[in-house]
Amino acid sequence: MPVQSNLDKVLDKKYENLSLNEVLEAPVAALQGLTDAHGEALSALRIKTVGDLGRNKYIRRAVALADLQDRSS
Q1: Exposed, middle or buried, 46 (CB in 10 Å: 0-12/13-18/19+)?
Q2: Which residues of the chain register pLDDT less than 70?
Q3: In-domain check, residue 5
Q4: Residue 1 within any structural domain of the chain
Q5: What's the pLDDT score for residue 8?
């Protein structure tokens, strides 16, 4: 079953009509609230695309820990 989602509130306007694969290959600045300057800072961690950001093991670990705390509250 295909997944459908409205990403208008997550992506900058020029990225809203891209496929999921295209979004994952887009620079991190494609996410609303992140700029090219954020992208430059993240590149030091070898994070250049939205996909890199989502797959980063340290970010995933931090999200998992925060989710655990939220569920235990």
Answers
A1: exposed
A2: 1-5
A3: no
A4: no
A5: 80
Q: Which residues contact 21 (CB under 8 A, 6 or more apart)?
A: none
Task: Note the pLDDT of residue 7.
Answer: 79
**Parent domain of 41:** 13-72
Asked if the structure places residue 47 within a domain, the reply is yes
Cβ–Cβ < 8 Å for 15, 30? yes
> Do residues 40 and 63 lie in contact, with contact meaning Cβ atoms separated by under 8 Å?
no
CB-based contacts of 48: which residues, under 8 Å, 6+ apart? 27, 28, 39, 42
At residue 1, the pLDDT reads 46
Distance between CA atoms of residues 50 and 31, nearest Å: 8
Provide the whole-model pTM.
0.85
Pull the structure tokens for residue 7. 């990403």
pLDDT at 45: 94
